[in-house]
Amino acid sequence: MRLGVGLGLGVGGIHTIPIEAFVFAGDSITGGQGVSPTMPDMACVPWGITPQNIGVSNHTLTQIAADIAAADVPEGRAIVVIGGGINDLAAGETSSPVMLTRFGTCVTAARARFPGCAIAICTILPSTLVTGDQETCRTTTNAALPGAFPGVTIIPAAAVAQLAVHSGTYYGDQTHPNMLGREYYCYCVYETLRAAGIPGLPVPAAPLAHVRDIPDVICEIGADSGITDSSGVTSWLDETANDHDFVPIGLSTTRPAYNADDGDGYPSVQFDGSSDGLVFEYSTHPSSQKIDTGAAYTVVVMFRADATGDGELSAFSGTVFEGRSFLRCNTTTITNLVQDDGGHQSEHGGKTFAADVWHTVHQHHNGSGTFRLGLNSETPTGAGPVASWGASTSIRFALGVWLANAGPIAPRDVRIRALALVKGREATALELWLIRHYWRRVRFPA
What we know:
Layout: E1 21-26, H1 28-31, H2 39-43, E2 51-53, H3 61-69, E3 78-83, H4 86-90, H5 96-113, E4 118-122, H6 132-148, E5 153-155, H7 161-165, H8 167-170, H9 179-196, E6 217-222, E7 227-229, E8 233-236, E9 257-259, E10 268-271, E11 277-281, E12 296-305, E13 310-317, E14 324-330, E15 333-339, E16 345-352, E17 359-366, E18 371-375, E19 381-383, E20 396-400, E21 414-423, H10 429-443
Helix pairs in contact: 3-5, 5-6
């Protein structure tokens, strides 16, 4: 999506001094709400600059201006990202000129506190608490912001229109975006700043052309490519040169369904959780492309699941008890179920997800029996090392039901849209960000 933006130059003309800090000023939407990550945590990942978050819950624009003026931030050229206004509207403000004046106070404070800074203003996000004249004021103010402050970059309202359209998907409550909403909005911040070409801003990682462009990705699949559908999916081709193609095998006695349009204009592969499954075997590949269960790896899956049942999303395993790990969906929680070479199981992760919404889950193994799990933009957490974790080179990687020693887990309806597998190491935070960005904003945009 191409965003219309202004060029943030500050008051000192064009600068070539490097940007040294991102300062995020705002209210609780900026500062974070509950267990959701803060906006800066996600928006700054691709830039490699530590964010300075001075967002304060319930603050109005006037208070945000005071926060900026008093900011205890190390000296250096900065980008100041201003997000606020919702508390002004919730308090009853209905005048767009007044709102613009208050935004101007924030801009003035930023220029005084951080001479030569670049400034960006986030348009005011929708809230079900803001209705009637206040909602009219919100939309009118957003429409006026791009022309109100020369030299200030505006994160345009059009970029975040989906937040209003799919409020149940992207909002955690009446005002605050949930994790998906925050991630979506931070993509908009990233794309706007990147397109603005602000002098001194580090050149960020560009959106990927393909996930397989990341080093050590040995398998990439997407539901819009490489699928043979003959009364169900008979093969799903690997897009790398490694030919890790997925086919039915073992207890996968029926084929998953191919949905050419899963309700949002993009395809998916749907597993019934009972007998549908696809597997690729390592035994048919050269040793350079094998991963034994004692090796480090990261698997990233874009999935959507309903709210009932208990079943496998994917599995990494040997033939009997030779070290295996499963991504397991249980109602609205996804966990990492690990089974050591003695058949003992441990379960951790416990990432709660919204049903019937697309998510990305990333599972990591450090090569020494410690596993971590992350959902969407979460920092992965986990447990380990797993006792008696065994290595096996006779392993399979499966989607849906797989030929396991104890048989398949109970039925579960799950759809998969994309998968990437990194061999020999854990993927970095930047690589995970780029993969999510590519899937959500390039290949399967909302």
